[in-house]
Amino acid sequence: MSTVMMGTDVAKSMKEDLIRQTEELKSQGVEPTLCILRVGARPDDLSYERGAKKRMELVGIRCQVVELPEDISQAKLEETFREINQDPAIHGILVFRPLPGHLSEEPLKALMDPRKDVDCMSPVNMAKIFAGDETGFAPCTAEAVMTMLDAYGIDPKGKRAVVVGRSMVIGKPAAMLLLKKNATVTICHTRTEDLAATCRAAQILVAAAGKPKMITGDMVGEGAVVVDVGINVDEAGNLCGDVDFEEAKEKADSITPVPKGVGSVTTSVLAAHVLRSAGYLQRK
After folding, report:
1. Rounded distance, CA 85 to CA 198, Å?
2. What are the b/e assignments for 122-161, b being 16+ CB within 10 Å?
3. CA within 20 to 30 Å of 97's CA: 7, 37, 112, 171, which one?
4. For residue 238, what are the CA distances in angstroms to 62, 213, 260?
5. Rounded mean pLDDT of 231-246?
């Protein structure tokens, strides 16, 4: 019988410490503040925004949303971003990506104050993750994977870890965080030969490919730990992950569900990053 690793339980256990940190900063005259910059109104952005706002409210962090029209010009986007970036009252900035096709996020990455970069958009923070420098902010979802493993007492040390997905948002940074914990890491992608065999060999399998139920039961090794990062909608219109949960749970020792899995922890990690950022900026 698999252990279902509930992100909702992990987020609940993090809540009191986040509240304590928030109150400590407020007692010093600092009101931790997150600014979400959203261009357009994609359903997945709006869903994450609702969750983030709710989490910030629960722990006492102020959250403001700057919504820009989908047809905004690059120049106006950069002008707005500069204003947010330079505002001393804002401690953390979250930009929803990908941006609409006519816009480039590269100038925003270059402009981003690394101390406010709570979801690892700046190349400075990404470099720190690859260097194993803990002063950087990892992408929230990648860090949520590690938070889930830690909460359930799963030590990656010496274990064979396979990450399916090579994006700079989740796959690659998750691999680096596992490597820092002394796992032996393989990164897979669409051109990996015999993907199923590689996945079966994993003691820790992280699915972050963005394809619904692509990890089937025959791709999971007996006794593996399966962490599903995917957020997709299936043919029936229901949320599902990159893993076929019903098939995989028959073989996995531990597995995260979708929803109520890693995604539930991501917004708590975001809150923790905003509090760290507020502390950094207070001491500057």
Report:
1. 43
2. bebbbebbeeeeeebbbbbbbbbbbbbbebeebebeebbb
3. 7
4. 31, 12, 13
5. 89
